[in-house]
Amino acid sequence: MALTLAALVAERSLGLRVRAAEAGLDRAIGWVHPTELTDPQAFLEGGELLLTTGLTLDETTSPGYIRRLVDAGVAGLGFGVGLSHESIPRSLVDTAEEVGLPVLEVPRKTPFIAITRAVSRAVAADEYASLVRTGKGQQELTRTAVGKGGPGGVVRKLAKLVDGWVLLLDSSGAVTEASPAARPFADDLQEDLARLRAGTLVTVAGEYNVVLQTLDTRARGVLAVGTHEPLDAAGQHIVNTAVSLLSLALEQNREHVGALRRLRSGLCDLLGAGQAELATRTMKSLWGGVPEAPWSVLAVAGPAGTRRSLADVLDAEVAGDKVFFGESGAFVVALGDVETVARQASRLGGLHAGLSDPVSTVDFPAGLRQAKQAAEAAKAERSPLVRFAEHAGRGFLEMVESQAAQAFSDSLLAPLRHHDETGRGELVASLTCWLEHHGHWDLASARLGVHRHTLRNRMRKVAELTGRDLDSPGVRAEFWLALQVSVRT
Question: Which long-range contacts (CB under 8 A, 24 or more apart) does 70-74 make?
Fold first, then answer.
């Protein structure tokens, strides 16, 4: 901390006495400058303790002299007595008291060089402390950035180093990272963020001084730092270090995320080309697991920017061995926990999703085609989600007279419903699931949560009650249409 006038007066060896404006002794001393000029303004930067013996001053000239020093922004005046003046001119003291400029009386025995040395030592110590603080802060930020903390860790560490709060904002002004209790300040900064194009902007938010600094990234971000007092030199250096580290981290993360997305899209292409074994092996090596089959494939269509936003959300919140997603043409494709993906797409708005029938890993190409067809249907209908089973069924059923279709459905499914109502089984649900899985026993039984032998017994019961041969493709189609009519009504 810089040496103040009060601290200088407290050094008893100097023998200084306060003669005017004692309330201003908390001012920091930037440097010491001895001069006998009646107007030294051209040689001052502000913040100096000016030393003089008053060689050219008297009761008449002193008031103007004091006012010129105030205009120059000096911290205070040290007046040496016992040489040209036995005491400080009364008009000088009165004027200094009036304008609030501290005046220190320097005794004859105290050479000006002693005051200069005292201030010099303090300035050197302050600069050294600032240098140490800057170096330590830079080291802590760097360790955090290269460790597991990432951008969020850098933001929280910076807040502690400057004893304030910190926000990391994206190009829209939304908060991406925040130190504790910092988020509420984001709303107060929106107008300032709209004015900021590049560089630095200093503003206020409540009782805090705020520095807004743009990051050097292709996707323009902003770092907001709020402190009770304006940042000193060390604080500014530390903030600049954080800006550099965050810019580098975010740009590297951007490249990393982009590479992963291209890899995901490549894996989607592999799955779509029937290379399921190679694709799933790669997925396991990179993400530690693969969503459990059978897969319901979800395809999401919509504007490119909104699809990218969906991918951002999936990267941040749900990607992993429960959900795999990638891009296939103009679609975001997901498998695994597709219900979660569909909810995220619905929240963003402007997206339309299609959901395939459950498929095995080797049948992914068929599931992908179904999902894309259903997504196109959802887009045409302006619906957030269309299931392929519903879409496929509607296409034929719309050509059939509704009463006839209903009569056909009721007639074919009546024995099964009567059987289910007796509590002796779940034939309708089991038949529906079996048909959805294209007669695949293992996939359908896994989805139903029963043994495949149990499912076989149920299908034999369906054939027995209806007198139909389920091995016949035509019979399966009839049952499927009957079930779709039942669902529609």
Answer: 70/99, 70/100, 70/101, 71/41, 72/40, 72/41, 72/44, 72/46, 73/44, 73/45, 73/46, 73/47, 74/44, 74/46, 74/47, 74/48, 74/49, 74/50, 74/101
pLDDT at 399: 47
CA distance 433 to 426: 11
pTM greater than the 0.70 cutoff? no
Distances (CA, A) of 322 to 291, 305, 339, 484: 5, 25, 11, 30
What sign has the CA pseudo-torsion 391, 392, 396, 402? negative
Which DSSP helix (H) or strand (E) runs through 154? helix 150-162
In this predicted structure, the answer to whether residue 400 has a pLDDT above a threshold of 60 is no
- How far apart, in Å, are the Cα atoms of 263 and each of 171, 258, 267, 282, 306? 26, 9, 6, 10, 20
SS3 label, residue 151:
helix
- H/E stretch holding 280 reads helix 276-287
3-state secondary structure at position 353:
strand
**N-terminal to C-terminal alpha carbon distance within the chain:** 80
Residue 295 pLDDT level (bands cut at 50, 70, 90): confident
Burial of 224 (0-12, 13-18, 19+ CB in 10 A): buried
Determine the Cα–Cα distance for residues 50 and 482; give it in Å rounded to an integer: 100
The structure tokens listed for 248 are: 């580098």
Q: Could you give the 3-state DSSP secondary structure of residue 49?
A: strand
Round to whole Å and give the CA distance between 183 and 243. Answer: 19
**Non-local CB neighbours of 83 within 8 Å, separated by 6+ positions:** 53, 55, 108
What is the predicted pLDDT for the residue at 114? 94
Locate tokens 């056909």: which residue?
408
> How far from 55 is each of 40, 47, 84, 373, CA to CA, in Å?
14, 23, 6, 96
Q: Say if residue 70 is exposed, middle or buried (CB neighbours under 10 Å; 0-12, 13-18, 19+).
A: middle
Confidence (pLDDT) at 443: 85
Strands 331-336 and 295-301: antiparallel
Q: How far apart are CA 189 and CA 357, in angstroms?
A: 48
H or E segment to which residue 19 belongs? strand 17-20
pLDDT at residue number 148: 73
Evaluate whether 370 touches 388 at the Cβ level (below 8 Å). Answer: yes
DSSP structure string for 104-134 = EEEPTTS-HHHHHHHHHHHHHHHHHHHHHHH
Task: Report CA-CA distances (Å) from 149 to 207, 240, 390.
Answer: 29, 19, 47
* Mean pLDDT for the chain overall: 85
Residue 29 sits at φ, ψ, to 5 deg, of: -100, 115
The rounded distance, in Å, linking the Cα atoms of 489 and 474 is 23
Element containing residue 386 per DSSP (H, E):
strand 385-387
